[in-house]
Amino acid sequence: MEGNSVYERLREFGLTLEQIESLGRLRSAYAERELIISERRRLEFARWLVSTGRLTDELTPSRK
């Protein structure tokens, strides 16, 4: 968990060390899951760009 004050507040609410650590793991897993979902959306968008021809590996001259 972030910062000592968060730990202290959770202890004040009566949570045990094990519960606090479990919450920390849950929070990390959730953040990782959100990161994976975001990355998947970016990849799906890139695939769409390629499949619609909006993104290719061909070099084209820049427009002036």
Structure, explained:
The structure is a single chain. The N and C termini lie far apart (53 Å). The chain contains two helices and no strands.
Shape descriptor reads rod-shaped
> Uncertain runs with pLDDT below 50, 5 residues or more?
none
**Roughly what fraction of the amino acids lie in strands?**
under 5%
How many helices does DSSP assign? 2
Helix amount: over 70%
SSE class: mainly alpha
Biggest sheet overview: none
Order of helices and strands: HH
State the main characteristics:
mainly alpha; 64 residues
List strands and helices in order, with pairings:
Blueprint lengths: L2 H10 L4 H35 L13
Give a quick summary of the entry.
The chain is an all-alpha fold. It has a domain at 3-45. Helices cover 70% and strands 0% of the residues.
